[in-house]
Specification:
The protein is mainly beta. It is built from 3 helices and 12 strands, in the order H-E-H-E-E-E-E-E-H-E-E-E-E-E-E. The strands form 3 sheets. It has a 6-stranded mixed β-sheet with strand order 3-2-5-10-7-8. Strands 1-9-6 form a 3-stranded antiparallel β-sheet. The protein binds copper (II) ion.
């Protein structure tokens, strides 16, 4: 569906998810040595976690990672709706290696938003660099209000 051509409630539920936001210029508050963290990490066996994005929840909705341990987060969207994952504070505290889908990968080291279009899968490879408990959500209009949010913990 073309964004902007839909109608009323349909528009609300299928609003544009936008694009991935991966940046290479340090945004305020992000991990300043993210390039070094990514370069020094051992990517041979990252902790692999799969999270499914459905209408309108994350499954599972609570994730736990370990600080300094590389993660491969697989985001699966089996629905016919685009979804996203955003968490300003969590993304400030990770060092992003790449976001990949299909055969293509976009290198970090800083992530502001990841979008998983309908029917697609994306992988987010990162190192949690700080401890914390964070909330995240889908920022497509209305989805968080319908319950599309979750929690992530970074522990020792
Ligand atoms: Cu969503």
């Amino acid at each position: 569906m073309k964004c902007g051509l839909s109608f009323a409630l349909v528009l609300l539920l299928s609003a544009c998810a936008g694009k991935d936001e991966i940046v290479t210029a340090l945004p305020p508050g992000y991990v300043s040595n993210a390039v070094e963290i990514v370069a020094q990490a051992d990517w041979s066996s990252p902790e692999t976690v799969t999270m499914t994005l459905v209408d309108y929840e994350f499954q599972p909705s609570e994730l736990t990672f370990h600080r300094d341990r590389p993660v491969r987060l697989v985001l699966v969207n089996p629905t016919t709706t685009d979804h996203s994952m955003v968490s300003e504070q969590f993304f400030k505290d990770i060092a992003l290696k790449q976001v990949s889908s299909g055969g293509a990968a976009v290198a970090g080291p800083w992530l502001k938003k990841v979008v998983v279009p309908a029917g697609q899968t994306k992988e987010v490879w990162f190192v949690p660099a700080r401890y914390g408990a964070y909330s995240f959500e889908c920022d497509v209009t209305g989805h968080a209000a319908f319950g599309m949010s979750g929690l992530v913990n970074v522990v020792p």
